[in-house]
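2024-03-11 09:14:02 DEBUG pipeline.ingest accepted 1 chain
2024-03-11 09:14:02 DEBUG pipeline.ingest length=188
2024-03-11 09:14:03 DEBUG pipeline.predict start
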Amino acid sequence: MKNLYENLDNSLKRKLAEVKFVVFDFDGVFTDNSIWHSADGTEVVKRSRYDSQGFDLLEDAGLIDRKTNKETELKLLILSRETSLVVASVAKKLHLTCTQSTYKKPEALQEEMNRYGYKKEQVLYMGNDLNDLHCFDLVGLSVATADADSRVIVKADYVTIHSGGQGAIRELCELFLYARNIHPDIKG
């Protein structure tokens, strides 16, 4: 991961260091964009513990405090277009804030930015599909997963080397640590 960070453009490194608010789409970012749908309507998704460990790294470094939600250097939010028990359950398990049930994602994103007082340059949005494109216009740093729709990849400031639900979030978390010079690999 260190080599990946070192090869980033300096402008991207600076933007990563300035981010204060990270907003994640759910499907295709926390998951591989697949669902198992049973006859009774129950949905199940698969997500990576590797990604969960990324949040632990941020917490260990003091960038987030998921248990108490105290003000820290980074605020994290899941922004999902639909109301889903699965999304709510993952958010609860990971101690992340979640905003659900909005078919106007850009408006919901702007509302959250306004609520917390974040400027465009302080916000990163991570997505993978067409309904994320307008959110990219509202933020200072847009990130697409490696397996995102090609139209999303073209518009993103950064494309992860990992796919959604397979380490893309962990990759981003580690890049934050390198950008702030606090990654465990470089601390001495």
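2024-03-11 09:14:41 DEBUG pipeline.report The chain has one domain: 2-179.
2024-03-11 09:14:41 DEBUG pipeline.predict end
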